[in-house]
Every structure is written in C-alpha cells, then in structure tokens.
Amino acid sequence: MPIQYNTIQVMRYLYILFAFLILSWSTPAQDYKKAREKMVTEQISKRGIKHAHTLDAMRKVERHLFVPPAYMRMAYDDGPMPIGYGQTISQPYIVAYMTEIIKPKSGDKILEIGTGSGYQAAILAEIVDKVYTIEIVSELANAASERLQKLGYDNVEVISGDGYYGLEEEAPFDAIVVTAASEHIPPSLTQQLKDGGKMVIPVGSPFLVQTLMLVEKKGGKISTSSLMPVRFVPFTRSRKE
Amino acid sequence: MNRKIYLSLGLLSASLIAFQLALMQLISAVQWNHFAYMVISIALLGFGASGTLLALTRKWFERHAEFALYLLMILTGVSMSGIILFSSALFGKFDTYLIFVDLSNVKYLVLSYFSFFIPFFFGALAIGLIYIQYVNRIGTMYFADLLGSGLGGIFLLLLLWLFYPAQLPAAVSILPIIAGILIIPKSWARRLIIPSLLLLLLPIYLIISPSKLPVSEFKGVSGALNMPESKIYMEEKSPYGHIQVIESPSLRYAPGLSLSFTEDIPVSDALYINGNWFGPLTDRTENNKIHFLDYTTHNLAYVISEPGSVLILDGRTGLHADHALWNGASKVTFVEENKKVLDLLKNELAFKIDSLFSDPKLTSISLHSRSFLLSDTSHYDLIVLPPIESFGGSSGVNALEEQYILTLDAMNDIWDHLNDSGMIEVTSWMDYPVRNPLKILATLVETLEKKGYMEIEQHLIAIRSWGTISFVLKKSPFTADEVSRVRDFCELMYFDPVLLPGIDSSERSAFNHLEDSGFFSSVDQIVSPERASFYKNYDFNIHPATDSKPYFSQFLKLARLNKLRDMFGQGALPFLEIGYFITLLTFIQISLIAFILIILPLFFTKWKGKGKVYTLFHFSGIGIGFMFVEIIFIQQFILYFGNPVIAASAVLSGMLISSGIGSLISSRFKNSNRSLLVILSLVILFILFYAFILTPLLRASISLPFSLKIIFSILLISPVAFFMGMPFPIGLKQLNEHNNTLIPWAWGINGCFSVISTVLATIIAVEAGFLWVMLLASLAYGFALVANVFR
Fold first, then answer.
1. pLDDT at B179 over 90
2. Class assignment of domain A7-234?
3. Which candidate in A26, A45, A90, A145 is catalytic?
4. In the prediction, which pLDDT does A1 show?
5. To the nearest whole angstrom, how far is the Cα of B435 from the nearest Cα of chain A?
6. CATH match for B1-215 among 1.10.3470, 2.60.120, 1.20.1250, 3.10.450
7. What residues of chain B lie within 8 A of the CB of A190, using their CB?
8. What is the helix (H) or strand (E) element at residue B201, kind and residue range?
9. What is the pTM of this model?
10. B247 and B230 in contact (C-beta within 8 Å)?
11. Rounded CA separation B714/B107 (Å)
C-alpha cells in the first residue's frame, strides 16, 4: 500500500525542521539559556513571584521551542505572542503568576483548558505528576502534542476537543488552569475541582489588559477572587490613591 | 469648453466619497473600526498632498492638462480596484494587534497608509487641476464636485445592498474610469478609447470573482470558525453591516453565569456583524426547563418583582426579550436599530429561535432606542438597558462611539417611561481599573437626584458576580420583602450585594473578593453628596455622559496622563484607553503631515506678491468650519432618524447638494469681496443660531412621520449649507484675480484642514461637547471673515 502523506503533517514536519534549523544556526543554545535566566530574574522574580518550583520550571522550559519560528528571537521578551488561529502564548510573567497562584506541587493532577502552544502545560509538568490539557483547535492540539512528546514530557496528555465538559474520567483535579477564558465558567469544570482545589482564569484580551481570577472550592461552596489586572507589569495602584 | 468635464468631475467626486465609505466598511470587516478610522484619515491627506504637488509642478500640469486629467482619473479608478488585491496580501500578514507584539509590524501600517492614500491622491490631483484650469467657472465646477459627492454617498448606500465588502472598491472604481473615458483628449481618442474600455474589465472581474480577504484571526467570527465543525450558515450584505450566522456544536453563550449553575448550557448559533459578536440565536425549546439568565445578576429585576410590561432597548438577537417572556411578562416591547437583523430574525432565522418574534405578547420596533423613547408615550414596569462593555473589557476601543442610550438625558427619558413602581435594569461587566460600573452608577444616582429622590439607597440595588454587576433602579422604595429576596438570591447564586438597603460591609465580598477594595469606597462616594469631588479626584472620567458629550466609554482624562503613567507604568496607557489614544495618535500624525504639506511649497517656490496669510486663514477657516458643522449635524441627526446610516446619508447629501447650489449661484456675484463678507457673516450667524436651537428643534419634531422628518431636515440643513458652499469658489476666484499661483496651495490647505478638522471635531466633542464644536466652527469662519476684511 502506498504511503499517504497528509499535507498538514508534511507542513508540521517542515515547520519543526525549520524551527530546528533556525535554532541551531541562528542563536546558540547558551544564548537562549542566558535569555531565560534574564527573563526569570527581570520579568518574574523582580515582580514578586517567589514560588520556588515555578521559578525553577520557568528557568528550565525552553520557551523558544513553543513559539513560531518568526518569533523565536523574541521568545523571552516581556509580552504575549501570536501562535496562529487567534491564539497566543501568554507573556512569561502571566504564565508564572498563574502557576504560582495555584501552588502546584509534586503529586498533583492538573487539568488545563486551552493548550495553545503547550508552554503552560510544560511548566506545570515540571512540577506536578500529571497534566491533562485540552485544546479545541485540532491543528494546535496536534502540534502541541508532538512538541511536548519530542521534548520528553511524558506526564502531559494533550486531548484534542472541546474543553467545555472538562475530563470527567480523570476528575477530580487539584487545580484547573483555564487559558482560554470565555464569558462563563463551564459548570462541569467547577464540579471536577477537588474540595480545596483552585482554578485560575485570565479575563480579557491578551494584547490589552488581562485580569486574573481565582476560583476556590471549599466545603462545597465556591468563591472567587479577582486578582490584579496585568499587562507586562502588574497594574497595582499606588497606595497613595 | 468640453461640457463633459462637469459630468466627469461629478463622477470622480462621487467615487471618492463612495470609496472612502467603502474602505471604512471593508477595513472594519476584516480588521477593526479604530484601525479603519486611522488609516482612512491619513489616506485622505491625499487631498492636501495633491495641492502641494500642484503648487510645485503647476506649469507642467497646465501644459499637459488635458492628457493629465484623463490619466489621473483612470489611475484613480485602477488604484481603487488595485486596493483590493493589495489588501488581500497585506491583511494576510498584518493585524493591528501585532504592533503591540513586534514593532517591526509598523512597516505594514505605514504601507497601508501609503496604499490607501494613492487613489485619494490621484483623484484629488485631478480635481485640483480642474479648479486651476477652469477657475473662471469655479462656481459651476464646485457645484459639480459637491453634487457628485452628495450623490456618491447615496450611490454607496445602494452598493451596500448589492455587494460584499470585498467587492465594493471595485464597484466604486468603475466611476472614475468612466469619468476618464468621457474626457479622453480628441488627439488621443483613437489610440486610447479601446484600452480605456478594456480597463473596465478589471473592476468587473474583481466584482464577479472577488478576492478572499483574510479576516483578522483575533476577530470573534474567526474564533468561532476555528472551532471544530463550525460553518457559516448564512451571509447577508446590507448597509447595516456584513452579517454572518455561524453554526457550531461548541458555541455556548451564558455571560457571567453563576458558579452554582450545574446544568448544561445549551449550544447556540451566533450572529456576527463585520466579524464582531452581535448576539446568540438561542433555541427557546432548549429552555423549557430552565433559563440560564435566571442564574445571572441580570435576573435581579425579576427577583425583586414580576413585571408585566417590559421594554427591551437595543435588544440585538432577542435573548433578553425571551427572558422577559420566560419570567411571565404579559407585554414585551423590543427595540433594535438594525433593521436587517430584525427582518432575518422574523423570517429566515425564525426557526432558530423558535419564532420568538411571532409571540403575540412581543412587539418589535426597528429604531434607535433613544429615538424610540423620544417618540413613545407608553409606560413600563421594567426597562432593560443593553449590557455595558464586553467580557474582560475592551480597553476603551469604543471610546468615541456616541452612546445616546447611556447619557443622563437618556436616563431621564427612560425614567419618564416608568410606571409608579417601575424599574430600570442595567448590567455591566466588571473592568479593571474600574470605570464602566462606576460611570453607570453615577448616571443612575444623578438621575434619581434630578428627579428629587434624595434617599438613593432606598431606590437603587446593585449585586455583583465573579464578572458582572447589575443595577436596578426603582421608582418606589424597595420593600423589606424585596430586599430579603435579593439577599436570598445572592446567597443561592454566590453573588454579593454591593448596594442594598441595610447592607453590612462584610456582605459585599462574601463570595467574590476584589484585590482592589477601593471599588466599594468609590461606590459609596458616588452615592454620597461628595460625588463631585470624587469625580474630580478619580483618575478616570466617570462623570455621566450627556447628549452633548455622549461618549459613555470615554474614560481618559488628558490632565491625568502623567499620573496614570506613574501609577501603571510607562507604555501601559495605550492599552487602558486604546480608542481615544488612537484618535489622539491620528490627530498628531495628520497634523504633522499636513504641516509639512502646507509648508513644503513655500520652500520651493518664490511666489511674489501678498496673499499668503489671506490664503492660509481663508481656506483653513472655511475647511475647518465646514467639517465641524457637517460632523455635528451627522451626530445630531443620528438621534433624529434613529439610524446612523440614514442620518449620515441625509446630512451628507443634503449639505453637499445645497452647498453645490450655493456655489453655482455664487458664480453670478459680481463684487466678490463684498459678497464674501456678507456670506461669511451670514454663515457665522446661522451656525451660532443652530448651536443653540438645533437640539430643541429636533426634539420637538422627532415624533413626525419619516417623510416629514426628511423634509424638515432638508429645510434645516439647506439654508446654512447653501451659504457654506460659497466661500470656497469665491475665494479661489479672488485668488485668480490677484495671485493665481496660490490656487493649488489654497486647494491643498483646504484639503489638509478638512481632514484635520474631522478628527479635531471628535476630540473637542469628547472634551467639551457639541456646543463648543459649533461655537468653534463659527470662530473658524470668523477667522476667514477677518482675513477677508484685512486682505
């Protein structure tokens, strides 16, 4: 039987090859490492992120492998970047903030809604035992799945589909990270949160201003906290006001 | 003289106006309104640039005038058609938002400025050249120009019914090509007629086989279509926008839903206009057990009482009307200004919403909500306002949109439509830093006070969920039983009361905590008599909007820019208030370019004789004055007609045609200087008269039948526009008599200031109100008058 090539697959391999070439020819790996270290020091630690596991993961995960080739040179810049299909890879600070806020630890099982590039899942996978991540745009889901496998993240499972119903068969979760927020929080997600579990959601446009929201479940009751609005830096008002 | 030149000029002018409106439609559909506004404003500087080039190369153009005119008109048409090919290449690579990510994208922005500028430049160059060549007949020429422009707006209205946005530039481009063919020089006729006719095949091909324009991947419709198995169920073209209905098994709509809701949210199709979310098409049969809006803060009014008659303003696709019926309303009046959408909902899309609009308890009206209120005499138990802002906030994208339904005057009208225990309900998304909820609260509180109700707490309840806040204002005081029901509802839904008679501060964040607790103190200060000082001290403008400054979503205080920068960091401001920021940015860019265009000829030409100061003051003054009046007329007539498309067409056509007639008549004046002084004085008096009398006149006649309103508006607009059409041709004629080398410069100045003043009028309206724009319009004509007195 002749081999059937799928155009998208071919494109994907070409994309990975291109990314590899750019990576290996244009910027030496140690430069990316330095850029990553600088990103953690200047964009993350300096702005108040203290959770050691989060900082370690941000130092370790190679963000430049999660962005389109055209944006590789800006992978460690202080901002979000488009990854196609109207989706973005969040600004490093937001990824760190969202990770710290759910206080992940070894042994945790986490559900992510909106895989995107897979970067947030990789950060979580450095800390917890298992990450399930659901992406509705199948092209993004397939690309992220391949990328994460290639990078050796065996504890991440990428599911291509609608995250509306969460993942009942693996529930309950210690935490849920929703990276693609909509006007409502699907009831199934709060139901699949462990008692004492946390869910974090960014609200707003990734290019403009986002507010992070934390949902907590305690004793069957649900409460929310609107955290600070963020864009590049936290929009904390001065105490003078 | 070849009389065809009049027709040719008219066609060219018609095409330029139609092209401007077509571009607005096109760029808004594939990108964003604010981007369209900026790009088109800068492209229109083609008018100013044409004057500069003519001033520098006048002699060459005069020598080759016949052929140049033909060629410029053809180039205008071809470049208009070519824009569509360029756009499909540009918008495949570029999105406005990418500028925020990577500054290297600015090159695409500059490229788009330049490309959209070309057709206007060629067109304006042709018009300027005609004015130079036929300055002795300037009155008639200007008449043809203005008549063509007036009809161009109407022409595009017709095209909008026939073509999709991607086809519009090509359809418009046929006009200048025909205009060129009409004036082929006799000596070239044999050689050029066939190639010129063949050029018409380009727009025809682009109409039959339109380019596929890539819609921004960050637009709502692109997101919906990226979902698995999503498809476009229906597409409609109309002056009300490019309407798309999307079917998807993954689209669900339940804004601000309570976290206590445990059922499934039904899948619903959705309607998009120009790629932006408009509303869901919720199948009512899915709601036979439960209505998800009962689980939102929006349900507050129905918790307080059981309203029998409900008025839904700006109802969009009818979700809130359905909710009112679900809650037992016996009479629901639904108002939505988009006539095309309403027609679709009643007919082709009726099956998708279980024939909601065939319900005998529901009456639907296609009109601007405010215009409806001004003409309606009924009273209601509940009036529901449209939700304010979008999920997560839009960072001030809509800052410059006139929102006549959210002004203090509107709230006053709404109040007058309430029964004795009637209620007003309005829901807003929470935004950070908080702006929208505070401004609507301020509007409601001031409405109560204006009506003599000083015990605000007894008449105003607000509750907050994780993302929304709903206010209910009630004419009669809330009863203990009503207050108790609201408390129980909040407990059940994980909502928190913000304003409630007898509220304890601990209740305010029982379920939904805020990092910035300053919100509650802001609410308390607005409700208290210290409100005025709070408005003054708050870093954003949360003073209620009025009919004179109907920009509810404009929050930026220019005087606080430095403080905001200190608080939120350098570079953050554009992202907080992007709409107004883009307008200011546009104004700065236009002013700089215009300054260069106006000054440039002075460096290269050695003009002898006086007249430069006169030329500058006269032509800039009348350019600013004309545009200020035109913009204020459009804004005022939106309310009058209840429809922005009709308002813009009526005003533009009425003004331009009347001005054209004025220009025609002016060519008979013999003593042009004395005539000009009288005419400018009359214009100033007319504008001052309108500044104070226009609004009351429109208010008094708003209930007239549509046909009478049209006649009345023409009667109002025509006299002043008639005289406003005279100073330009008379001014050019005077220049021709004294120093005709200044004519192209005058044309450029007029072009530059016409563009600057459209943006400037908006900024003045936002900062000071419509009245000031009118007063400054008369001042601008005053400058022209002074220039003529001392010339």
1. yes
2. alpha beta
3. A90
4. 35
5. 13
6. 1.20.1250
7. 259
8. helix B201-208
9. 0.90
10. yes
11. 45
